[in-house]
Design a protein that fits this description.
CATH class of the largest domain: Alpha Beta
Strand content: 15-25%
CATH superfamily of the largest domain: OmpA-like domain
Helix content: 40-55%
Strand order of the largest sheet: 1-4-2-3
Distance between the termini: 34 Å
Order of helices and strands: HHEHEHEHE
CATH topology of the largest domain: 60s Ribosomal Protein L30, Chain: A
Number of helices: 5
Length: 147
């Protein structure tokens, strides 16, 4: 009886691992793995007064996620902001809606919902840097090991 392709491939991988170990290679260091899967931050911009993702924002999120293939996800933290216009209640509501929109988009792109934490940013951000209004900041934390 001939061995299956899977059994043959497993045997070859095991033989290669033994040969590498015999040659003194212990595998990549945690620093090397960390540089392969560094944590990353990016922003998602929204049109003024809108809580909807633009096609460009959705494409940007997709491109970022493509770069994470093979990395182990620890957590995604989304900090969302309003526009700074309107009442405090309106701004907070818009910021929360934006955060949920980004969370939903990431989930639709394959990030498991339990890994996503969404929180509103401070309302005073517009006083610090008005150019950053209307955005959601996304912080993706990865472990230093590959999947």
């Amino acid at each position: 009886m001939e061995p299956s392709l899977k059994t043959t491939r497993t045997a070859r991988l095991a033989a290669a691992a033994v040969a590498l170990a015999a040659a003194g290679w212990a595998g990549p260091s945690s620093a090397q793995l960390s540089s392969l899967c560094p944590d990353l931050d990016f922003t998602v911009a929204f049109a003024p007064g809108s809580g909807d993702l633009t096609p460009a924002a959705r494409a940007h999120m997709g491109q970022v996620l493509k770069g994470l293939r093979g990395c182990r996800l620890r957590r995604v933290v989304i900090v969302s902001f309003g526009d700074g216009g309107g009442s405090e209640t309106q701004s907070r509501s818009l910021g929360e809606r934006r955060g949920q929109t980004v969370s939903d988009g990431l989930s639709q792109m394959g990030i498991p919902a339990p890994f996503i934490l969404t929180r509103p940013g401070p309302l005073s951000r517009s006083a610090v840097n008005p150019d950053l209004n209307g955005e959601a900041e996304v912080h993706i934390q990865l472990s230093s090991t590959l999947q």
